[in-house]
Amino acid sequence: PLGSNSPLLHNLNPEQLAAVTLPAEHALILAGAGSGKTRVLTTRIAWLLQTGQVTPGGILAVTFTNKAAKEMMTRLAAMLPVNVRGMWIGTFHGLCNRFLRAHYKLANLPQSFQILDTQDQLSAIKRLMKQFNVDDERFPAKQTQYFIAGCKEDGLRPNMVEARDAETLKKIEIYQLYEEQCQREGVVDFGELMLRSYELLRDNDPIREHYQRRFRHILIDEFQDTNTLQYAWIKMLSGHGPADIESGAALRHAPGSVLAVGDDDQSIYAFRGARVGNMADFVREFNVTRQIKLEQNYRSGSNILDSANALISHNSKRLGKNLRTEQGPGEPVRVVESPRDYDEAQWLVDEVKQLVRDDHERKEIAVLYRSNAQSRVIETALFNAAVPYRVYGGLRFFERAEIKHALAYLRLLENANDDTSFLRVVNFPPRGIGARSIEQLQDAAKAAGCSLHDAVSSLGGKAGTNIGGFVAKLDVMREQTAGQTLREIIELVLDHSGLVEHYKADREGADRLENLAELVNAAESFVSQEGFGRDAVALPVDELGGGALSQSPASQGIDPNLATDDLPPSYIDQDSGETLSPLAAFLTHAALESGDNQAQAGQDAVQLMTVHAAKGLEFDAVFVTGMEEGLFPHENSMSDRTALEEERRLMYVAITRARKRLYLSFSQTRMLHGQTRYHIKSRFFEELPEGALKWITPKQPGFASGMGGGCSGGFARNSGAGSEGYASARGAFNAQTATFASPPVPPQKAAPSHGLKVGMKVFHNKFGEGKVQTLEGAGDDARAQINFPRHGVKWLALSVAKLTVV
Ligand code: ATP
Ligand code: MG
């Protein structure tokens, strides 16, 4: 081929070489994970440029995430001295944004139009529905949001949607109003970015022809996850849109050629409208004669690859591809079981540290999880161990809006003059305090040179009464929480602030309620196990402004074996003698954790992300955490075959991210939605080849180290043990914690026995009568396995479930 002695073409296998040097025709590369699809796509761009077949401006390359786009530009820049920034390489949204910025007038947008993310979009819809008195029981905002996004993905404006029934008619009406509101405010949502650029291309012949002439080569990675509109957009740019088809062969220019690259087994966005069928449509509509398969995997050894292949073979409806590797078996896939999510995180941190000691770069280590909510425990553990990390996609826990609201109330309890917090929640949840009143207050505070809080008393009229009410509420909360534990304080504040009620009333507030419950968990563990003492040693002293907190309980000479109740309620600053309340300490922790602790750009950091966000990426070592039924596969998909197959593809993506080392980990219990849940390991383990796996027992700490006798060993499933048995199990728990934690954490006093025995009959409000089968744990961790004839066997946390003996 042209330039066949170019070093670019060295190190390609024959199929890859053929793909890189394809003539300028439409083509499809369909191949499994790690077979070099992205590498081929990038190399092809370089080769086209180097051989002078196209100028940088003639390339349009689309990838799925910003991280992947960056990666592509980096790889390209390493191959050729070319200004990659000027090239059209990016995500669909990124490229459409660029296009609309260039043609904002024609697109009827203000030059500085702002982009609404999904959350902003939802708030905008809610605001509008309130304004127009739309019944949000009948038309939940989130459903309306899906409706609007779906319409846009199908290229439909309000006047084009078929009004099948009264319900749809109403939704169309809201869609129309929403569009008007966005237009008025000069904002566009993600769907609008795509749709508006599509329409501009469709309706404006000169613009369309300009870009058709310009983009000689259109290359799309991860094609299996394109949706209808994205595919239509590509057709438009490559002369296959409706207008071009009408004019038949009369196109005044030869349209550019399209190279689509994908893997049907990695289609993981069906839930967001991706159409794997676009691949077959592409072959048909573009008369694709060249289809290239790549069958050699260059990423991983055969243990990892065999695992991936065996897993995905359980799916039906596959296009069918083979993958082999010449790398030999490589390391086995390590499987790790932990008693609790907390232990899983601790184990993970230890393992990460070991990898780093063994000269692995941190950015070559990825921690993957199925849902964003799982990241908190891991983030905290990494944070406490001072391991730099970076979270991709999704907000970090302490940056989520509802958490920030809750923290603002808590801050105001500590410091009434915190104006930022004051403004954040003075009218949240909404209590009829208008912008006008707030302005008045701000003026008064400015004039008097005092805080907003202090200026309230000088404010008269309705504003004074309303805001005065808010301040009074804070004062009451402050009084009520005096002397309470951190957990009690937070629970009271969540309740009395109206936050819980607010999100409960919001039909879409379930996630946020979950996060608020998670905040209580975070505080709880901050005080009891992970946080309080440990932060004290893990944080550099100067971050805390002087010596505050620099003394851990252990170094203050407190016997680590004392029960929690005997610990002093606050920590004493050795310099000033001042005490810091647990609340203040926790707020510091939250602020630091949300602030700049996250690794600086360019700093070598462990990579945290959902499996979805990891698509297309690769790392030396990959941890897939939370491999439990209900988490992965996700509980929403377990009863539906199609959804389960998507979960399996997601697992396939997760496994195939690893180059050298893969860990699959799961935990027997997990704090979720504010309570301990008992999980069994994921069904996906049954689908992996046993020979490729290595089951690693979690490090069993020696708990004989002065932790009180009678420990019967680890997290034993000591069914039928009496109440002393629970106490020992609890002791073992703490011993384990103590070994991980530094300084050791005192064991908690075993709570009094709940009096249950195996074989007893009990009554539960929801499940009715049942029989106790197994009892485990003690105190807050006590749990029972109960057989309810009408509801099956359930694990119940006894500190939460209300059971009566019958
Ligand atoms: P995914 O489906 O996960 O997106 P992919 O098919 O895009 O994977 P790449 O990311 O392009 O695969 O390649 C996987 C790894 O294999 C990369 O590290 C790449 O550099 C390497 N690789 C690809 N082809 C070769 C080759 N011919 N020789 C050596 N290494 C190769
Ligand atoms: Mg790829």
Description:
- Helix 16 (401-414) packs antiparallel against helix 25.
- Strands 11, 12, 13, 16, 17, 18, 19 and 20 form an eight-stranded mixed sheet that branches. A six-stranded parallel sheet has the order 3-2-6-7-1-8, sandwiched between helices.
- The chain is an alpha/beta fold and 806 residues long.
- The model is unreliable at 529-579, 595-601 and 699-752 (pLDDT under 50).
- Helix content is 41%, strand content 15%.
- Magnesium ion is lined by residues 37-38, 221, 616.
- Magnesium ion binds at residues 37-38, 221, 616.
- It comes from Rhodoferax koreensis.
- One of its GO terms (molecular function) is ATP hydrolysis activity.
- Belongs to the helicase family. UvrD subfamily.
